[in-house]
Design goal:
The chain is an alpha/beta fold. 46% of the residues lie in helices and 14% in strands. It has a six-stranded mixed sheet with strand order 2-1-5-6-10-9, sandwiched between helices. A two-stranded antiparallel ribbon has the order 3-4. Strand 11 and strand 12 form a beta hairpin. Helix 1 runs parallel beside helix 6, helix 1 crosses helix 7 and helix 10 packs across helix 11. The radius of gyration is 22 Å and the shape is globular.
Amino acid sequence: MSERRVVVVVYAGAMALDITGPIEVFDVANRLLAPAAAPYRIDLVSADAPLVRTSSGVVVEASPLEAGQGSIDTLLVPGGWSLGEVLGDQALVSWIGKAAARSRRVASVCGGSFLLAEAGLLDGRRATTHWAYSEAMACRYPAVTVDAEPIFVWDGPFVTSAGVSTGIDMALALVEADHGAALALETARFLVLFLKRHGGQSQFSAVLDAQLADHPPIRTAQEWILENLHNPLPVAEMAMRANMSPRNFARVFRREVGATPGQFVERTRIARARELLETTDLPIGQIAGRCGFGAPETFFRCFGRSLGLTPKEYRHRFQVVTPSGLIDRRHETDRSPA
């Protein structure tokens, strides 16, 4: 293979970082590639060519869609604030579907997964999108299994990433699949990324922040939960903190938060465990206790279900600070799958 052609579909109102983040990864990888390796060739195409204004006002230059004919290695579709209008552009949606058939793999960033789903490309597959729009995607495309947790999902030739910056993580995974972990890590270091995130890492920290309710009694209960994760948290006790009956509390909590009290507690415990795994050297059993998991086995089961990694694997990938200082893993080989 002489080169790997990356075709990026851009449109008015697309998010600039959805476009520039991944292509900067491919460009830096090109500059670090061995001379004999196949470089990436990046083509931007658009129905709005030649000058396309993104949602932030940054203008990118693109060729007409016709320039995207022929064989494609990677088709990349970004998201954007104008997505509602773009989904109604049947000519563009049809073009994406046809271009996908000519592509070795198809990737999306953030809401770009809606365009792939609109073209019928994700039916029967697992996909992700920005956590704020995951429910809308699941309702609009019931044939797609929408997973709001991971930062990117790889299902066959389709790779969908979550909100905005995760397009960079996804692009690094594509580079790793094409050229190996060493180049992907070198590219991440050159871009001065804090760490190279595995696709199984959760979007949940953002989800958790967004789930603090505006309704004062529910928010009071949530704040009490956050302060008492190490203790058993029966619904009756939560309801008492909100000065509500258990039945009414459960109903209002779900309405305000979008999750049952039990789901919120488990997700909060997992979020706290992630923080401790990333920033301390505490034994995993002790972390389980601090986060309110009755037994290490329960912790392992819940953690694996949520993140697709064991606590030990998660710590190895994402631990950044310990009492002795910054952890430098540059000498290690990342054997994680793309």
